[in-house]
Every structure is written in C-alpha cells, then in structure tokens.
C-alpha cells in the first residue's frame, strides 16, 4: 500500500489497457464516424436558433431581391439551316445542288450566330446604340450596346435538328421580340452577303489573273515571231487528224523535191527500158548485148555507191565516165542499126536522166538546209510551247470568269426563319417562388455552416462528443447543471437525475483500473470552480450509499471548498461539525498541531470529510512532504476509498504532485468554459508527472440537450459496448 501511495498503482500502465480492456480513447478509432456525425448534430441542435434566424434572413433576402428586381421578358425566334433550298434561277443544263450539311457545318453556323459582327449589325439596324441617354463617342456607345446585347442573347441548337433558337431577354417585351427577329434577319442577310462577297472577290481575282496571262501570252508570241524572223524559220500550218500540223518551209520543200525525184527516176527508168528494147533488135545483137551487160553492171555499182558517196567523189566520177563511154558505144551501135528511132529514145532518156540528176542535187541541198534548221527549231519549239501554254491558260481563265459571273446570280439562301418571335406577355424573372426557395435553401445552408464552424472553431468542450473528439479522452459521465447546494440537495433523492448521474459514473469507474473502483483517487480540473468539489461529494455520497466507507480530503489548500460550508443550510450537521473544528484540517495535521481524528467530520454514516484547514504559505511543500504521504497511507488503511479534492492544474504544482501518488485521477471539465487546448495541456501535465488520468467527467451539462444529457451517455459509453451498436448513438440523438 505504501508503494501505491508514493508512486501510484504500478500495475496500471499510464496509457495501457486496463483489466476491462480499456485503453486511452485517443488511440482508438471505434465509432469515430458516428461521433463525428453526432458532433455535427450536436452543433446543429445547440445553434438551432441561430440557424433559424439565418434561414429567415435568407428567406427575407430572397423576397427583397424579387421585389427589387425589374421584370425581365423573354422572346425567342427559331431559324433553320435548310440544304434543300432551290436556286431562284435555274440554268439550262445545270442542276441545282443542295448544300451538304454535317455536324461541322452546323457548329460553324452556331458560332457565326455568336459573332460580334452580327451583334453590331443588329445594334445598328435597331439603333440600340443611340437609345436612351447614351453618352460618349459613337464607338464607345456601339461597344456598350454590343456588350449589353451579348449578355441578353442566348443562341443554342436544338438537339439532333437543324433548328437554332435565338432567345433574347429584356425589360421591354416589344424590344425583346424586335431584337430576336432582327437577329434572325441580319443573320440571313449576312449569309447572303458573304456568298456574294466571295463571288465578287473571285471575279476580281480572275480579272487580275486574266490580265497577267494575256500579257504573258502577248510577250511569248512576240518572242516566237522574232526568233523565227531572225533564224529564217517559216512555219506552214495544215489540217491534221487532231487539229492542225505545223511544219517549216524547208521541210515542206524537201518533201516536194523528194516526190519529184521519185517521178523523174521512174521516167528515166522507162526511157532506159525503151532504149534497151530498141537496142535488142537483130542488128549487132551480140555486141550490144555485151555492152548493155557492162553498162548495167556499172549502173548498178553506181547506184549502190551513190547511197554512200556524193557524185563529186572521184570513184563516182570515174564510174560516170565509164557509164557515159559505154552509153556512147551503144548509141553508136543503135545509130548504126536503128537510125532515127534510136536517137529519139536516146534523147528522151537523156532528158529524164538530166532531170533526175538535177533533182538529186536539189534534194541534197535541201537536206543540208533541213538539218541546219532542225537545230534552230529546238529553241523555236520551246518558245512555241510557251505560247501554247499561255494560250490554254488564258482560255481556261476566260471560261472560269464566265462561270463565276453566271454563278453570282444563283446565290443560295440556306437560312430561313421557322418561327418569328412574338411579344411576350409574362415575365420570366423574377420568380417569387423560386427566389423564396433559393433564399430559404441558401439561408439554411449558411446557418448550418455557421453553426458547425462556430462549434468547431470555438475550441470549447461543450459535450461528451467533444470530450472524445477534441480531447481524445474517455468520457465517463455527464453531470447536469446545478450548484453545490442544489447537487447536495438532489443527492438525497435516489431517483433524481443528479443521483443517477453519479451512480452511473461510479458504476463505470469500477472498470477504470485493474482493481476495480480506485481505492485512492483524486479529482482535478483545468480551472477553478469547474465542479470538482461537487463531483467529489456526489461520488463519495453514492459510494457510501453502496455500503462503502469513504473519506474525502479537501486538498485544495489555496481555495478550499468545504470549509465554506460552516453556515450551509443544506448540510446543517456538517456545518456544525466544521464550526466545531474551529477551521482546522489537513494543514494542522501536516504541521503536527492536530490529529486526523480531531478534525475529521462525519457527513453520513459511512461518509467522512477531512477539511483543508488554514491556508498555508507553502501548500506545495506540505503536499510533497512525508507527513502528507503518511496521512494518506493511514486513511487508506482505515477507509475503503480515499477521494482527494485536489486543486486545478494550470499554474499550480499541487495537482500534479497529488496525481503522481494516487491510483487514478478523474478529470473534471465544465461544459462550455475551458478551451480544449487548455484541457489537453492540463491532462498532459498530469501524465508527464506520472499521473493516471482514467477519464473525463463533464459538469454543468444541459439536461435538455441530447448530447449532454447524462442518461444518454449512461448507455452510449457503458463498458462492453460493441462497435456494431455505435450507430445507436446518433440515432438516439436524432430521436431526442
């Protein structure tokens, strides 16, 4: 027992599990979500008047906004993108083509409906920029009017259709309808102008191209003629199978001479045959045959070599001389044998032969000229191709220019008004019912947010839920509101709420340590006057009613509570006994001026009290003395339970010293007073001094609040509760 008094119950770890399986609440997550929801519900119930007030303000704000907002009317017009629109003028041989409408095209039209160019056209058409008392430059007035129109107009495409809806909102219903209809009409006009503008641009572009191409054609023709003149090239044009054929004069002459040469050669061969026939007659037949054979061989050899050599070649000249010699010999024989007939044939032959030779010489000259002209014709053909290309391009541009001129008269209007806007009769805004509903919802949400944030940000411990969430400690009980006298008075009735609250606390504390209800324990708090003394008295009273001997030590030597009961009307016997002690108590026992039995007063049959006595100059030294430890040991041997009413923690060394020597410390927190940070700091200080804080008791709890009512926590936080039943916590709170 001495060891327990000096250092506390060593078998109970400071933050470890107890015999009942209890661990410090801050290390567990059981029912955390339920506790958080319960905390929110608690904040809402606690601030229900605030929530109601903010909700009413939101409702009032919705009404005022609806009353102050001018009526807004809505007019709508519908237009259609119609690809089946026919041309106003049909051209013979040219069928009208329907424009292909796809998703991209429709999206493009939707964006065109939203362009600022269209909005400016509507503003100018309706003179919206000069309406009212508009001030500023024309550009500023136009921009301001366009901005207003942009905010007032909404353009959308009806799903899976080619219909577009133009919705205009305005405070003037007639003006809203005018704007919607003007918007549709100006969009149609803009579409037509855009098509006409495209044709005009194309015509201007083609006109420039035609002028440039015509100039290029003229320059290329001049270059061709100049080159032909400088090179002496004369081109002749003749009809061909696919048009016209163009050839030079030298080539044409070469063909003509070659044809004449063939005809002369035929005449010469015929004359020669006639002579041969005449010469073959009986006169000098043998000799003529020999000469004719030789002549034929020479002529054949000459013809063969004429393909390789020119007539001026020496070998060719020698052959000619031999041929002439044989011909002369044959002529002499024929003359001798045939007379005048042979001479006539010979003259015919000679004439044909001379013509043939003349044509051969002319053909050779023309061949030389044609070969020379062929080299010059390369550049000529290049220039001629330029002329042909420019001419073809010029013709194509002229044809396209004519087509565009024709197409300009066939503009397609793909946009049509399906449903014009009518003047609305009922405003669309403000809607009083909607405004009131929105104000009600906004006010309710704002009130809930303010209530929850106020509860969270305040940092005060107000409920048992706050004890477990903000402090992380086990909540052992909640004591209803009441002062010391009222609590003492209600404790006399076993059916009172106060008595049941302390009874529930005593029952739960049986599982607080391994040895059951602590034999030696203390009660402390963060600040003075948080209900330590009343809680000490109530707990001791319940234990005494259960047949246990209990003594309370008023160890708050700086601000004693029980000495002030010497004139208490609720406890007259106690007051009389305290007066009999003449104000003596613990202080006099510790300094040796009195014995414990001289100053102990009896409250009931099993409930005794040892008052604090006179206030010493050095309370901390007395409470850390051996005399104090001896006093506690002696009382622990005599009583079943020794309960010490210790001083508050913050700023004093008394409470940590007392907590270090007892088996358990019960921490008292007054509802809605101490900040959670202060309480945590106080509990941490006790534990740092080897104090065994087993839980927290919330005093001055509101019996009418579901989260603070002691009977609610009697069941919600009882020993052995499983996680599966944790949901009942907030369910019970909702029912209350």
Produce a short descriptive summary.
By secondary structure, the chain is of the alpha/beta class. Helix content is about 60%, strand content about 10%. It contains 25 helices and 14 strands.
Distance between the termini: 47 Å
Q: What Rg do the Cα atoms give?
A: 65 Å
Oligomer: single chain
* CATH level 1 name of the domain at 460-719: Alpha Beta
| Strands, total number | 14
Helix proportion: 55-70%
The strand order across the widest sheet is 7-14-13-8-12-9-11-10
CATH architecture name of the domain at 460-719 = 3-Layer(aba) Sandwich
Chain-averaged pLDDT:
75
Binned strand content: 5-15%
Q: Which word captures the global form?
A: elongated
Weakly predicted, low-confidence segments:
1-32, 85-100, 240-244, 704-736
Strand count, sense and barrel status of the largest sheet are: 8 strands, mixed
CATH topology of the domain at 460-719: Rossmann fold
Q: How many helices does DSSP assign?
A: 25
CATH homolog superfamily of the domain at 460-719? P-loop containing nucleotide triphosphate hydrolases
Quickly list its features.
736 residues, four-stranded antiparallel β-sheet, disordered N terminus, 58% helix, 25 helices, eight-stranded mixed β-sheet, Rossmann fold, elongated, alpha/beta
């Amino acid at each position: 027992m001495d060891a327990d008094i000096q250092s506390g119950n060593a078998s109970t770890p400071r933050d470890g599990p107890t015999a009942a399986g209890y661990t410090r609440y801050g290390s567990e997550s059981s029912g955390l979500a339920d506790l958080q929801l319960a905390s929110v519900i608690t904040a809402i119930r606690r601030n229900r008047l605030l929530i109601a007030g903010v909700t009413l303000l939101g409702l009032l704000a919705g009404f005022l906004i609806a009353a102050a907002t001018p009526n807004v009317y809505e007019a709508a017009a519908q237009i259609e993108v119609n690809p089946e629109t026919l041309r106003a003028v049909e051209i013979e041989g040219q069928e009208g083509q329907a424009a292909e409408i796809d998703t991209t095209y429709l999206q493009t039209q939707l964006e065109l409906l939203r362009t600022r160019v269209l909005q400016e056209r509507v503003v100018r058409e309706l003179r919206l920029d000069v309406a009212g008392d508009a001030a500023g430059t024309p550009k500023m007035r136009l921009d301001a009017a366009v901005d207003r129109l942009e905010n007032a107009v909404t353009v959308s495409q009806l799903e899976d259709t080619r219909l577009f809806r133009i919705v205009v909102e305005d405070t003037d219903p007639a003006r809203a309808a005018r704007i919607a209809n003007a918007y549709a009409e100006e969009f149609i006009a803009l579409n037509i102008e855009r098509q006409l503008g495209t044709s005009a641009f194309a015509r201007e572009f083609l006109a420039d191209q035609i002028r440039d191409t015509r100039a290029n054609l003229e320059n290329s023709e001049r270059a061709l003629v100049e080159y032909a003149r400088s090179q002496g090239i004369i081109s002749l044009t003749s009809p061909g199978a696919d048009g016209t054929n163009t050839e030079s004069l030298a080539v044409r002459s070469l063909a003509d001479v070659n044809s004449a040469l063939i005809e002369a050669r035929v005449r010469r061969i015929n004359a020669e045959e006639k002579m041969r026939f005449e010469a073959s007659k009986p006169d000098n037949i043998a000799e003529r045959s020999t000469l004719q054979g030789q002549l034929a061989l020479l002529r054949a050899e000459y013809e063969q070599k004429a393909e390789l050599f020119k007539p001026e070649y020496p070998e060719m000249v020698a052959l000619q001389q031999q041929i002439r010699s044989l011909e002369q010999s044959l002529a002499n024989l024929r003359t001798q044998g045939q007379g005048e007939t042979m001479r006539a044939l010979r003259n015919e032959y000679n004439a044909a032969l001379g013509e043939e030779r003349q044509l051969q010489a002319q053909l050779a000259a023309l061949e030389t000229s044609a070969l020379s002209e062929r080299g010059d014709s390369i550049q000529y053909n290049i220039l001629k191709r330029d002329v042909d290309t420019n001419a073809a391009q010029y013709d194509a541009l002229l044809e396209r220019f004519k087509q565009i001129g024709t197409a300009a008269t066939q503009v397609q209007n793909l946009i049509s008004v399906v449903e014009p806007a009518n003047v609305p009769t009922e405003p669309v805004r403000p809607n009083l019912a909607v405004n009131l509903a929105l104000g009600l919802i906004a006010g309710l949400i704002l009130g809930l947010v303010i209530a929850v944030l106020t509860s969270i940000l305040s940092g005060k411990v107000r409920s048992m839920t706050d004890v477990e969430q903000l402090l992380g400690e086990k909540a052992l009980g909640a004591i209803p509101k009441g002062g010391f006298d009222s609590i003492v008075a209600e404790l006399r009735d076993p059916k009172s709420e106060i008595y049941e609250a302390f009874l529930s606390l005593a029952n739960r504390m049986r599982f607080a340590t391994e040895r059951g209800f602590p034999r030696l324990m203390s009660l402390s708090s963060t600040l003075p006057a948080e209900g330590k003394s009343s809680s000490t008295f109530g707990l001791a009273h319940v234990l005494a009613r259960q047949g246990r001997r209990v003594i309370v030590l008023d160890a708050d030597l700086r601000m004693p509570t029980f000495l002030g009961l010497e004139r208490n009307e609720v406890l007259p016997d106690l007051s009389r006994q305290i007066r009999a002690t003449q104000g003596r108590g613990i202080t006099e026992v510790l300094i040796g001026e009195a014995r414990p039995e001289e100053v102990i007063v009896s409250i009931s049959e099993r409930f005794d009290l040892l008052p604090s006595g006179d206030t010493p100059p050095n309370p901390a030294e007395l409470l850390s003395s051996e005399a104090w430890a001896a006093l506690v040991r002696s009382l622990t041997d005599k009583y079943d339970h020794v309960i010490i009413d210790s001083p508050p923690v913050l700023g004093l060394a008394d409470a940590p010293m007392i907590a270090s020597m007892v088996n358990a410390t019960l921490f008292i927190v007054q509802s809605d007073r101490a900040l959670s940070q202060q309480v945590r700091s106080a509990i941490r200080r006790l534990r740092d001094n080897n104090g065994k804080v087993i839980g927290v008791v919330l005093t001055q709890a509101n019996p009418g609040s579901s989260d603070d009512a002691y009977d609610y926590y009697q069941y919600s936080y009882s020993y052995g509760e499983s996680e599966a039943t944790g949901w009942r916590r907030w369910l019970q709170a909702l029912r209350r």
